[in-house]
Structures are given as structure tokens and as C-alpha cells.
Amino acid sequence: MKFDGSNPDFWKAVGMPNGADKQYVCIGVKASNYFMPTETKSEKGPGGGGWILMDQTLGVVTREGKKWGEDEKGHHRIYAIGDCNYGCIEEKGKKPDEWPIPPIPKISYPGEEEGIIACSNIVIVDKLVFQGKTSHHFGAPLKVHNMHWPWGAGMFATSLGPDDACFVAGANWVKNSGYFTTWGSGSAVQKEIIEASKVDECAFGLIGRCIWYFVHHTPVHLWGGAPLWGY
């Protein structure tokens, strides 16, 4: 049933003939980066802007594109991942399809992927600056990784009540993209499994870690924009 708060018949139909005492509306997101300097935050974006700006390595930058908080050798020391960052890297004069990073949804998968990349970059910078290393074990030069538009950002599992849900896969930054793959009670069970296993992973449970570890630690990437041999 579609919500219609101004219609008395709607309230009667849901068993509340006198209406609701209060109505709470939760739509969209809003930045809460008050602790960061204005020069590092976007002037636009969801909720009116205020998102932390970053370059492709996820290091914080200013509105002019300069590194913010870099060390004496020019390496980033401060990174912005997940909900706090701008969620894309624009390029003037080009459409989102042509940006270095098109807009990324503020959901869990891309936040975790950004976390893996930022942590890998911190380790690489540590090797370069403090350990004097310049190459990997097999001779490849040490260099920080770039973020990409993560394929998992196009998967959405949405609850529609205790016994109903839907799952969309293959979506991207283009409106109405993606495929409606599962729905109904089967999708509700799917969402329960996702939630339970993720909680178990965060609690260092064996089952949760076995299920989710390789989602962000895939040793070989054949598609999706990530490096071939992982991070």
C-alpha cells in the first residue's frame, strides 16, 4: 500500500483511524564532516555537499586538487573511505561515464573495497618511506593503488518486510540500470544470510570469514577495473 499521510482512508486501512502522532521521514544521506577544514570538503553532492574530497588513491585533497596532509616525501598520510568521502572523482568537461571514478553508491561493499585499497596503500607507503623497499617480492615496482568503480557497488538487497525482499544486480551510475534478479521470500532468506554471515565475519567467526574474505581479497581480477593480481 502506498503511503498517503493526508488521506484519512489510508490511516483507516492500516488500522490507525486517528492517524499517527508523529511521522519520521528518512530519505537520502547528509555529510557529517564538521571536523575537517572547509578546503577539503565538496561544495556540492548529496544532502547539499560537505563530503571529503580525495584523489584516486583515496588520499584527501583540497578543492584545488592538492594533497592534504602529505608527508615530506609527498605521500598521502590521511585517507577518506566509505560514507565520508565525495564518492566520485570528476573531470571537467566530461560526462560521468568518462570520469576517473563515476559516482559510487554509499553502501557497504564499496566502503569495504575502499578500506582494502587504503590499507594496502598505507602498507606500501610504509615500505617506501621507513623500510627502504622499492619493489615487490617478484621485482615489480612498489606504487600505491588507484581506486576504481567497484562492480559490487551495483548490487542491492532491500528488505520489504519480514518475509519479502528484492535483489538487484549489475547496476551502475546510469539511472534505471541493473537487473531485478530475486524477490519474495527467497530474497528475504538471501538477505538474512548476508546479514548473519557479515555479522559473523565482523566478530571474527570462521563461517563469516570463509564466506566473505575473498570478496575483497580476490587474488586474480579478470574484470571490474581492479589490478590483475589483486591489492
Task: Give the secondary structure arrangement, pairings included.
Elements: H1 8-13, H2 108-130, E1 156-159, E2 165-169, E3 179-183, H3 184-202, H4 206-216
Antiparallel strand pairs: 1-2, 2-3
Helix pairs in contact: 3-4
Task: Give average pLDDT, whole number.
Answer: 91
- Structural class comes to mainly alpha
Care to count the β-strands?
3
Estimated helix fraction: 25-40%
Side-by-side strand order of the widest sheet? 1-2-3
Oligomer: single chain
Please report which band the strand proportion falls in: under 5%, 5-15%, 15-25%, 25-35%, 35-45% or over 45%. Answer: 5-15%
Order of helices and strands: HHEEEHH
Characterization of this structure:
The structure is a single chain. By secondary structure, the protein is mostly helical. It contains 4 helices and 3 strands; from the N terminus they run H-H-E-E-E-H-H. It has helices spanning 8-13, 108-130, 184-202, 206-216, and strands at residues 156-159, 165-169, 179-183. A hairpin with a 5-residue loop joins strand 1 (156-159) and strand 2 (165-169). The longest helix has 23 residues, at 108-130. The model has no long low-confidence stretch (mean pLDDT 91).
